[in-house]
Amino acid sequence: MPHINIKKGHDLLISGTPDKDIVEINNFGTVAILPTDFKGVKPKLIIKEGEEVKIGSPLFFDKMNPDIKWGSPASGTVKSVEYGPRRIIQKIEISLNDNQDQIEKQKYKNSDIISLGRQEALNIILGANIFPMFRQRPFNTIPDPSIIPRDIFVSAINTAPLSVDLEVVMENENQSFQAGIDALNTITSGKVYLTTKPESVMSSIQNVELNTISGPHPAGNIGIQIHHIAHLKPGESVWTINAQDVIAIGKLFLNGIYDPTRVITLAGPCVRDPGHFRVMTGAKISTIIGDRLTQDKSRIISGDVLTGRTSSADDYLSFYDYSVSVISDQVRREFVGILNPGSSKNRYSLTPVFFSFGKILFPFNTAQNGSHRAIVPISAWERVLPMDILPNELYRSILAEDIDEMEKLGLIECDDEDFALCSFSCPSKTDVSGVIRRGLDMLRAEG
């Protein structure tokens, strides 16, 4: 099988790494779906406050594509619908009941799934209200189900800081994962690409183009894998899906039900007993955290420390997030720190790592160690971006709003998460990934 060796990048040596054992959390009183998680979607409610729903019941649909609906991750009562500016739906909160009833669909054997037609398999996924698990490149938005993707990509390796070890998740899920892969094969006219680490528990999966990958973060990013396996050309689109969502699709076909549980990590320097936890989609963060925080003044992040968003204990886990990271919010300025570059015990630097001075885990905090300043092109971005792309030139073309130049420089292959390390390592404190997202939004608006 083909192997990809990523050399550019960086693995953050952050303390609070999660234990490998999976702990079940079942005491959720409420869960929520956040329509703002989905780029380019205009939600319209199907339910109303006080209405009873089952697992998989449709909550809202996209006005731009009414076939795409979002299913409830729990059985219970719609507790509240929260609106933001211009009456945009921000949150749909559901109070759980004791029964956790599910909407049941037809069951299929593994051998029958692969023989299904595209529209038949697609209707099963759309009818179960879980189609938003798919995203497309370019733009990393929910795809149009009527458009046949060139290929479908599944990344079964995480390299982001403190992320889920998918080898642990997949140990007892091979049958469901295989069923999900078989279903994906019916949806595309091209190939289903699966990327794993070498000697993975998923190496026996059939009906896929299997690739292995090694190297530092962002080797696990699906965009990096697409770039190195079968890069995207203008006018093409591919679909991507998380490996745990492939399991959920497999269970839908095999068992006829939507399983809303997922394995996430709760980890970081401020977490007592960090580990892997099985929770419900849209779980409340306070229930996940419990009494595991070691200090009050801490930053809770839904997602990883590079691409996640600042949250609070009262918030809910985003639909596409599989980590809750907690780092210190206590920042102490170092006296004349500029005279001691790259060797402080209180500041993290890429310099000692690049020169192999050791791999000591570092208790990250929210300090930026400086403010925004003029960009000096010293190849800081290029060292951590394993793509055949000129990041500095691309960044400047976006600031200039030069659509043609953005396209020539390969923006359609990019996503903001692929440039997160550029933001982290930038000596000018430039939000590179935020600018990449702005460029993608401009490109999408141009059509």
Spans of 5+ residues with little confidence (pLDDT < 50)?
A: 353-357
Q: Tell how many strands the DSSP assignment holds.
A: 19
Number of helical stretches of at least 4 residues:
12
Mean pLDDT: 93
Return Rg in Å. 22 Å
Name the overall outline. globular
User: β content, as a range?
Assistant: 15-25%
Describe the protein's architecture and organization.
With 447 residues, the protein is α/β, with parallel strands linked by helices. Among the domains are: 30-96, RNA polymerase II/Efflux pump adaptor protein, barrel-sandwich hybrid domain (OB fold (Dihydrolipoamide Acetyltransferase, E2P)); 371-446, no CATH class. Helix content is 22%, strand content 21%. It has helices at residues 110-113, 118-127, 166-170, 174-187, 222-229, 243-255, 285-289, 350-354, 391-399, 403-408, 420-425, 432-446; strands spanning 3-5, 19-24, 30-33, 43-45, 52-53, 58-62, 65-71, 76-83, 89-96, 135-137, 152-155, 192-196, 209-214, 238-242, 261-267, 275-280, 298-302, 309-311, 323-328. Strands 1-13-12-11-14-10 form a six-stranded mixed sheet. Strand 17 and strand 18 form a beta hairpin. Residues 353-357 have low confidence and may be disordered.
